[in-house]
Amino acid sequence: MTDYIEGKRAVIEALRTEVPIKCILMADNAKREPLVNDILRKARQREVEVHMVPRAELDKRVGNEAHQGVLASAEPFPYQGIGDIVAASLAYAEEHDGRALVVVCDHLTDAGNFGAILRSAEAVGATGAIIPNKRSARVEASTYKSSAGAVAHLPIAQTSNIPSTLERLKKEGFWVCACTEQSSNELWDVDLKGKIALVLGNEHDGISDLVLQHCDMAGRLPMMGLVGSLNVAQAATACMYEWLRQNW
After folding, report:
1. How does DSSP classify residue 110?
2. What is the 3-state composition of the chain as percent helix, strand, coil, each rounded to the nearest 5?
3. Nearest C-alpha neighbor of 122 from the set 140, 98, 144
4. What is the pLDDT of residues 123-159, one digit of tens each?
5. pLDDT tens digits, 91-104
6. How far apart are CA 226 and CA 53, in angstroms?
7. Which helix (H) or strand (E) holds 138?
8. Mean pLDDT across 68-94
9. Are 236 and 189 in contact (CB under 8 A)?
10. Beta strands of the chain (E only): which ranges?
11. 72 strand-pairing partners
């Protein structure tokens, strides 16, 4: 199934950040306003073909009218290997006082949450993200939009076994921290200095018991209001910035 990036700004960002694009489909009645002209200019620079088609054709391809008259057909995402992320993390740590952050997502299923987490991970300087290769949100066209283009700058790897991957990270000097509301420790009291693998759980079930068994420590965010928990993407952002604060 073809993956489409929808909307003028999302397509511009995809062109700007070197997202692998097969071609661009543009409504034949699109007005030549600045954003459209920018798309055409960037497409020429990257030698990406632009096909003018009826707007109804765009509606049919994505099943809605939110495309703003522009769709980009994206190539499959080039995942990296776990070893690549480990190597990049160790190199980063050598140049940044021993700190590095790898974000591990335990079967997140919502693409919007996944993209938002990648955006925050890139913002704090994470060296990579690791996701399961099955039953999990993956990098697709919508992820480029929800991550505001961060997916193009953050190495992402897939794994068939999260526990074994965590053990590999430990052997490379990482401490593994589970972010879970079930912890009795507030995250502020958890030592996140140095090389940390931050584990985030599924939107409904949290981190699995098996994965928790392979974590060195755990922390929760204090909740002062009446709501019992935060959205996983919001919680992930707070946790990642706590890592950054402790390593500042």
Report:
1. -
2. 40, 20, 40
3. 144
4. 999 999 999 999 888 887 667 777 877 887 899 999 9
5. 999 999 999 999 99
6. 51
7. none
8. 93
9. no
10. 3-6, 21-27, 49-53, 70-74, 100-105, 128-132, 156-159, 175-179, 195-200, 217-219
11. 5, 24
Tokens (6 digits) for 147 = 């991550």
Q: Do 199 and 211 touch, CB atoms closer than 8 A?
A: yes
Q: Please identify which residue in the block is written with the tokens 């098996």.
A: 210
Asked if residues 7 and 66 have their Cβ atoms less than 8 Å apart, the reply is yes
DSSP 145-189: HHTTTGGGTS-EEEES-HHHHHHHHHHTTPEEEEE-TT-SSBGGG
Q: List the structure tokens of 63.
A: 């099943």
Q: Looking at residue 76, what DSSP letter applies?
A: P
Structure-token match 């070893």, residue found: 83
DSSP labels for 186-212? BGGGS---SEEEEEE-BTTTBS-HHHH
> Could you tell me how far CA 201 lies from the centroid of its own chain?
14
CA 233 to chain centre: 10
